[in-house]
Design brief:
The complex is a heterodimer of chains A (about 270) and B (about 270). Chain A is mostly helical and about 270 residues long. Chain A has one domain. In chain A, about 85% of the residues lie in helices and about 0% in strands. Chain A is globular. The relative contact order of chain A is 0.15. Chain B folds into 2 domains: about 5-85 and about 160-260, Rossmann fold; about 95-160, no CATH class. Chain B has helices at about 45-50, 75-80, 100-110, 115-130, 145-155, 175-190, 200-210, 225-230, 235-240, 250-260; strands spanning about 5-15, 20-30, 35-40, 60-65, 65-70, 85, 160-165, 195-200, 210-215, 220-225. In chain B, the strands form 2 sheets. Chain B has a 6-stranded mixed beta sheet with strand order 6-7-8-3-9-10, with helices on both faces. In chain B, strands 2-1-4-5 form a 4-stranded antiparallel beta sheet, with helices on one face. In chain B, helix 3 (about 100-110) runs parallel beside helix 5 (about 145-155) and helix 4 (about 115-130) crosses helix 5 (about 145-155). The chains are: A mainly alpha (about 270), B alpha/beta (about 270). At the A-B interface, helix 5 of A face helix 2 and helix 3 of B.
Chain lengths: ~270, ~270
């Protein structure tokens, strides 16, 4: 009975967590017109742009380096197998399709999760501990609109952009590998790549990156808002923000990939 | 005729079954300085958080200018909050903004004033608390007393009718604390503000208060004028005013615990 009870409790807690995330997401969506340019209040869009710089511009170098490495590794690993069958040209299909559909969005999400997700939790957690969130509320300002929504808007814009950059760098790394191991030069490589990937591959990847952005921002912010106590609680919130959003990103990836697989197959 | 600005009626708060506030009732009139006294853990910060509407009580009502803040609409609550300024114990200045931007924020967010007007108002608010020349500094560059004053400047940015202070003199030296007392009296006199101060500093309380309230273990044991407080014979009030400590722990309990720790539970001496 105790095992059943524990399983039941875990399921209820999990559902409650997802429920809170969904409610927070709806609040952010309701507040988003007040953050966007033209419809929003002055200054709010500036906050979103600052966040875009923090998530996107500052995150680009590490995403570029890791994508180049991942692209090269993928090409080498598949190349060493395919070479045995004299099918080295299929490396280009693997790199092109693999990056646009899967590795680009996932790698980007995991890096943003580690860099920015933890920063969201720590920043908001510190604001809770130092009563800044309470101060906002008592000044008749909405923390969701002031703090959370600019981050959400910024992530929804930057994550697809970063994913495209990651795809590009991964595919370029594949080109270098092909140039070193075969006679295939860059223009021909790109022709192969454009023949192998379809528009469908790109947009499913970008759609997934939007889902990942939603998860990373909401989990990071919610862990921050739940902080009670002092500095150690802020540290714990940053850790659990990263762990939980990584976990949810992978789950969502599996779920969406399965759906796309079934839809595409059908 | 006096007007009731804050009215707390039968406020009871429980956390996890533990009663923190017990049927507390308190009225604050327009233009008076009410000091809520109490020792550590007496529930005074909890009471303040309920008065400013950050938490919902287990039972009882909190009315601000006649509006029940736990049962009103969101718009009504926002309207009430615009007439209330709160200076937190931790100051709660936004660390990513300069002092000036902290004070400007409510003006930018909640009014349609032009930027030059906001700039002038911000300077006036900062100058009123003696920080006119420090607007460009970041909060972390300020001393403790300056931070408190900056928090007051921000709390008074929208010319609130009610000002709430949580422990204004906590962690400050006597000279800076006295300066804050004078600032509170100045705000009361110059702007006819209704001021609620939560404190445990007796000297400061007797300097600024029109009336005092003493909270003890979640219950309000007295609400009275300064003179009546000084003359009171209530044992808890006397203990508080005469700074008499509570006995730390019953020695029998301590001895029993030590025996238990030493593995001699149940052993009799």
């Amino acid at each position: 009975m105790k095992v059943l009870e524990a399983i039941g409790n875990a399921v209820i807690q999990g559902l409650a967590y997802v429920g809170s995330l969904t409610m927070q997401l709806f609040s952010e969506l309701r507040a988003s017109p007040r953050v966007l340019p033209l419809t929003g209040r002055r200054g709010r869009w500036k906050t979103a742009i600052r966040q875009m710089a923090a998530i996107g511009v500052d995150g680009l170098p590490i995403i570029a380096i890791m994508s180049v490495c991942a692209g090269f590794i993928l090409a080498m690993q598949t190349g060493s197998e395919l070479r045995r069958f004299g099918a080295l040209q299929y490396v280009m299909d693997v790199v092109g399709v693999g990056f646009t559909r899967e590795i680009g969005p996932l790698l980007t999400a995991l890096i943003v999760c580690g860099r920015s997700g933890s920063a969201f939790s720590a920043e908001i957690g510190t604001m809770v501990v130092t009563s800044e969130i309470d101060a906002m509320k008592t000044m008749a300002m909405d923390p969701i609109e002031m703090v959370l929504t600019p981050k959400y808007v910024a992530a929804m814009i930057t994550l697809p952009c970063l994913t495209i950059m990651s795809n590009t760098f991964g595919i370029l790394a594949g080109a270098v590998f092909m140039r070193i191991t075969t006679n295939i030069r860059f223009p021909m490589y790109m022709r192969y790549i454009f023949n192998s990937i379809e528009l469908h591959d790109v947009w499913t990847g970008l759609l997934k990156s939007l889902v990942f952005a939603t998860i990373i921002v909401n989990v990071g912010c919610m862990e921050g808002l739940r902080v009670r106590g002092g500095a150690d609680a802020v540290g714990r919130s940053a850790t659990s923000g990263v762990v939980r959003s990584t976990y949810l990103v992978i789950l969502a990836d599996a779920f969406f990939t399965a759906i796309f697989y079934l839809v595409h197959k059908g | 005729m006096t007007e009731l600005m804050i009215s707390v009626d039968g406020l009871t708060v429980e956390y996890d079954g533990k009663r923190v506030l017990n049927n507390v009732s308190l009225d604050i009139q327009r233009g008076e300085v009410m000091v809520l006294l109490g020792g550590s853990g007496s529930g005074k910060t909890t009471m303040l958080r309920h008065i400013i509407g950050l938490e919902r009580p287990t039972s009882g009502t909190v009315r601000v200018r006649g509006v029940d803040i736990n049962r009103c609409s969101k718009e009504e609550l926002m309207a009430i909050r615009r007439t209330m300024g709160v200076a937190f114990q931790e100051c709660a200045l936004f660390n990513s903004m300069s002092v000036e931007e902290n004070v400007e924020l409510p003006l930018h967010e909640l009014t349609n004033l032009a930027d030059p007007v906001i700039e002038i108002m911000t300077y006036m608010k900062l100058a009123a608390v003696g920080l006119g020349e420090t607007g460009k500094l970041m909060p972390q560059e300020l001393s403790g007393g300056m931070k408190k004053r900056a928090a007051v400047a921000r709390a008074t940015a929208l010319d609130p009718e009610i000002l709430v202070f949580d422990e204004p003199s906590a962690g400050l030296d006597p000279i800076v604390a006295a300066g804050l007392d004078e600032l509170i009296l100045f705000l009361k006199k110059a702007f006819q503000m209704t001021i609620l101060v939560v404190s445990h500093e007796l000297a400061s309380a007797f300097r600024i208060a029109d009336r005092l309230a003493l909270l003890d273990r979640g219950s309000l044991i007295a609400v009275d004028s300064k003179d009546a407080f000084r003359a009171s014979t209530h044992p808890r009030i006397r203990q508080f005013l005469d700074r008499v400590p509570d006995p730390i722990t019953e020695s029998v309990v301590v001895q029993a615990h030590i025996r238990e720790l030493a593995g001699l539970a149940g052993a009799r001496t």
